[in-house]
Amino acid sequence: MEQSRARARFAPADTVDFVIVGSGAAGGIIAKELATAGFSVVVLEQGPRLTEKQFDHDEFATFMQGRWSNNPATQPQSFRASPSAAAETALAAIYGRLVGGSNAHFTGNFWRMRPLDFNEASVLGGVPGTALADWPITYEELEPYYTKAEWELGVSGEPGPFDPPRSKPYPMPSLPNKSSGVLFEKGALALGYHPQPTPLAINSRYYNGRPACQHCGFCLFFMCEFRSKSSTFVTTLPVAEATGRCEVRPDSYVARIETNSEGRVTGVAYFDGKSKRSSSAPGPWCCAPTAPNHRACYSIRSPRAFRTASLIRAAWSAST
Amino acid sequence: MDLHSRRAFLRAAAAAGAAWSAADVISIEDALAWSAGQAAGQGRGGFTALSAGEAETVVALSSRIIPSVDKRPGAQEAGVVFFVDRALATFNSRQRKMYAEGLRDVNRRAADMFKAPAFTKLTAAQQDEVIRAIDKTPFFQAIRFDTIVGTFALPTWGGNRDYAGWHLIGLEHQPRFQPPFGAYDVEANRRK
User: Fold this and answer.
1) Which residue in B153, B177, B180 is closest to A215 by CB distance?
2) CB contact under 8 A, A57 and B176
3) Domains of chain A
4) Domain ranges of chain B
5) Which residues in chain B have Cβ-Cβ distances shorter than 8 Å to A226?
6) What backbone phi and psi angles, to 5 degrees, belong to A82?
7) pTM, to two decimals
């Protein structure tokens, strides 16, 4: 069902506080945080805004025709295994192209990173030929936000023996084990391992106004018509829009990050399917998947702004 | 329902040709509209991309790829030819020439190898022999792929009629939890 929303509407020429590129796992959450804190926000999403009625189980359209993902014909990608190899056209990265982004079609796996993931470089040493570095934050600093995310979005799980410390249990018990999980668990136990149910951003019971999983089995690459998958499409984006300060603008494909003569970022230029438009904001947030984020940063024409973006980009790449 | 009686039930339902429990609620209307359109235009010239003769050859070839065995539905019952026709008429039109040449080729081979007037006139064993001679060709790879997709993709794509493909593999498209098969006790497992 589609909720009635008090959606804000800005003219493309309006200057807002923040422009967010992408409406998925990152963009959808930042939109809610900024809008509920009182800022005006425009979220630019390259894909359409769909409703649950359009969330079918058409495997041919989804897997063979990439209906709701990036189109290799109009958004070509190339891939090479080493700097000296010739780049070949390949569908190297698939991402969701709809309001909710890849977060709308993800499986729902919702693991926390472990303390070592934050300081691996200093504990285990670097990797030759890479710029591997510690994160500037620790697990302990991030822990409250993991908990906030698990409770605000809705995650079902069960603590395992090697989990990092948590300040609060999962908000919902884990989903039931299915046949393949049973086989995996039996095998893992026989080998002396400690299997545990995967934490999933999927409701195992009624939670935050959304029903429990109906076990249709269509999670990865499909959107949940039952609204049980805790994606930003049904969790944070509706909250952001309900403030009346956030507009999610679908079918808006960002082409370039704009800068002024002083090298300051002023907003983004994007295509809405009809014409090229620009959206002005002192603070654009690039929340696209890694590869499109890099593309957006390479579009910056000011060397100073490009250097800044490159530093931030290095941090993003480490995190994705 | 235990496995045996479930199978018997599926088989009975498949034999009755009913689009019963496996109906995908969201797409059933589309499927019906498509099927109705097919039925209306089916007469002699119901195909868009394929000629009547080509369509018969596609039916024969796809029936050897997924045959109807033991009264279970196969590619023919699933209406793979309608999927192929629609694909060639729309999103797969670039393979139209390859299909036309490939279908002519199997008829030529039927004449060369068995002095038959057409591939469709061969026995199943003879058809398999022709297929063995071409099974590495791009054409055969394409029709093999299309036969599988036409059997199992949603009926909205033209095949999988009355969900014949899903009956074939026992898929019930029902959103509900099915407890794991066999005896399963998580606590007992962990004690071991």
Assistant:
1) B177
2) no
3) 18-77+91-309 (3.50.50)
4) 26-191
5) 175
6) -150, 165
7) 0.81
